[in-house]
């Protein structure tokens, strides 16, 4: 594996790009340098496939020829509001690369399951640590709440989230139906579907498990800032690396079977008594905790990608 390239729709503003570089990409670049891997990000539109000029299709990315033997693509779907216009382009390029027999550590089918929070809850319904019961509905320009969804019977207060966002963005608390409909009217401006989940109460914290090769490599305990619902660092939450809670070990084995990939993140909420499965992120961001401690998750992740890529090529050669 010479190259590890992300398919990433970079429509960020100057300020967004600077922040993403500081929080994410600079750490990834440094880890890739330590591993001797060429790391880069490319827009889906930069992928060109020539199926006419020779006996086999040739693939170019920004003019550089690439093959399944030398390049691994991370094909995780990005669906923030400024990237919605790229959604179809991302999905189709992911599918094309899959058909061209590139090794994709985030398979197209699983990225769809991991991106939509309702799909995640349904796919993992029998997890030893159950998902939080979820209600999904659409919003639109004609009606803020589409599909004649009945919101009156929800167990208020509820946590409201865009179905396909991450990083704690857009996570709000709705105290009653009127409040929820107000939130939906704002989401309708971008036709953004929403999910609602029961609020677990003040003091709820979050455990992010970084799972590498089916095992919990590291755990980040995230505590929300007072008055916040989401515990993400981007929302002011505090972070600390901790040991794996024993009660989550069975869930790790289950999730490893449901997501047979080299790397993913599983987020669990803890309300002071019980754990609840919250989300899965197949391209979950890793950075050192607030104390600057780094457990080497990125290096372990990239090494796992390299092992699985090698195994993929060996299996492909057997059936060639």
From TrEMBL:
Transmembrane annotation, as ranges: none
GO molecular-function terms, A-Z: ATP binding; glutathione synthase activity; metal ion binding; ribosomal S6-glutamic acid ligase activity
Entry keyword set: ATP-binding, Nucleotide-binding
GO biological process: SOS response
Domain ATP-grasp: 121-306
Cross-referenced InterPro entries: ATP-grasp, ATP_grasp_subdomain_1, CPAse_ATP-bd, GSHS_ATP-bd
One cellular component term from this protein's GO annotations in UniProt: cytoplasm
Pfam family, one: GSH-S_ATP
Domain of life: Bacteria
The protein's name: Glutathione synthetase-like protein
Lineage: Bacteria, Bacillati, Actinomycetota, Actinomycetes, Pseudonocardiales
């Amino acid at each position: 594996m010479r190259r590890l390239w992300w398919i990433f729709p970079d429509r960020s503003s100057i300020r967004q790009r600077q922040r993403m570089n500081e929080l994410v990409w600079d750490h990834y670049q440094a880890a890739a340098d330590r591993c001797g891997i060429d790391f880069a990000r490319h827009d889906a539109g930069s992928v060109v496939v020539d199926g006419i000029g020779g006996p086999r299709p040739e693939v170019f990315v920004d003019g550089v020829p690439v093959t399944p033997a030398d390049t691994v693509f991370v094909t995780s779907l990005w669906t923030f509001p400024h990237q919605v216009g790229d959604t179809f382009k991302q999905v189709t390029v992911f599918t094309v690369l899959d058909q061209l027999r590139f090794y994709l550590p985030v398979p197209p089918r699983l990225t769809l399951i991991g991106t939509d929070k309702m799909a995640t809850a349904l796919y993992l319904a029998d997890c030893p640590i159950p998902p939080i019961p979820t209600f999904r509905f659409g919003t639109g320009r004609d009606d803020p709440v589409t599909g004649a969804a009945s919101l009156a019977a929800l167990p208020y207060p509820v946590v409201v989230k865009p179905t396909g966002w991450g990083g704690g963005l857009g996570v709000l608390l709705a105290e009653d139906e009127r409040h929820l409909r107000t939130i939906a009217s704002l989401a309708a401006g971008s036709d953004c579907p929403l999910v609602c989940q029961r609020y677990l109460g003040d003091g709820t914290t979050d455990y992010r498990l970084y799972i590498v090769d089916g095992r919990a490599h590291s755990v980040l305990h995230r505590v929300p800032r007072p008055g916040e619902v989401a515990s993400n660092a981007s929302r002011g939450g505090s972070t600390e690396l901790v040991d794996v809670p024993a009660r989550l070990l069975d869930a790790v084995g289950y999730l490893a079977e449901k997501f047979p990939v080299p790397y993913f993140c599983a987020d669990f909420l803890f309300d002071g008594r019980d754990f609840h499965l919250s989300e899965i992120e197949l391209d979950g961001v890793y950075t050192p905790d607030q104390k600057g401690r780094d457990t080497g998750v990125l290096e372990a992740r990239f090494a796992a990608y390299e092992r699985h890529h090698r195994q993929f090529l060996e299996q492909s050669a057997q059936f060639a």
